[in-house]
Design a protein that fits this description.
Layout (H helix, E strand, L loop, with lengths): L21 H30 L1 H8 L4 H26 L26 H28 L8 H33 L5 H38 L15
Length: about 240
């Protein structure tokens, strides 16, 4: 007596595994190398600070902390506008339904809710340009007070650290212009435009985070230490004037 064999069931198809975009991965790897570069600048700052504390006391007395805080706030908020542009480029908000990626605004320019990636990235560009202009104004004031690149150890590391960061901001502004122009010229908003928008957001968020750390170390560390540590060897007072 023979037993009937049941037909074999086809094997279930394995779920598709999404591969990371090589351009995005390359951007993250490159930013990691930039992080080490700024880490070296931070090490230089603390080394010079320990060797010439009195000089740092005198030079930091020329800071307008209120002005620097306002300028920093502008740059940090530009990261928010940049990320909104990314969400519109991707066609999704966190924990929200997906929608058709929005390249340009729908309706009047005063209808902010209808803005697309281009409008949000343009606003980000403007805010970044304001930050760079504010930094240039601060440089002129400090030079007027005798703080130059070659005047003291503090001047050298201050202009090196903030100057290299400013160069990175300018590079980001140029990249924003390229992404905006590419989106304007493209007939359709494809994955290429989306990846470009995402990569520039990685870079811009990196620049913002570096500045937050730089701002805290250069502008806030010694005044805060003076407030909370008795007998701190670098007593620096806050100057909350904006202009």
């Amino acid at each position: 007596m023979t037993t009937a064999t049941l037909p074999e069931r086809p094997a279930a198809a394995a779920p598709a595994v999404g591969r990371p975009n090589p351009t995005q991965i390359g951007t993250i790897v490159w930013l990691s190398s930039e992080l080490m570069f700024f880490g070296g600048l931070f090490a230089m700052y603390f080394t010079l600070r320990s060797m010439a504390p009195d000089t740092f006391v005198t030079e930091q007395g020329h800071f307008a902390h209120g002005y620097a805080l306002v300028n920093t706030t502008i740059l940090v908020l530009s990261s928010v506008t940049c990320q909104i542009g990314v969400y519109l480029a991707e066609g999704r908000f966190p924990n929200g339904k997906t929608f058709t990626p929005r390249k340009r605004r729908e309706g009047s320019i005063f209808n902010v809710a209808g803005w697309g990636m281009i409008e949000w990235y343009t606003l980000t560009f403007i805010m970044g340009a304001v930050f760079v202009s504010g930094q240039a104004y601060e440089y002129t004031e400090l030079v007027h007070n005798g703080i130059t690149l070659s005047s003291t150890p503090f001047g050298s590391i201050f202009y090196l650290a903030t100057g290299f960061h400013g160069i990175h901001v300018i590079g980001g502004l140029i990249a924003f212009l390229m992404v905006i122009m590419r989106a304007l010229v493209a007939d359709k908003f494809t994955q290429h435009e989306q990846v470009s928008a995402i990569c520039i957001s990685y870079y811009w968020h990196f620049v913002d985070v570096v500045w937050i750390v730089l701002f805290f170390i250069v502008y806030m560390l010694d005044p805060l230490s003076s407030l909370f540590t008795s007998g701190h060897f670098i007593p620096v007072d806050f100057d909350w004037s904006i202009f």
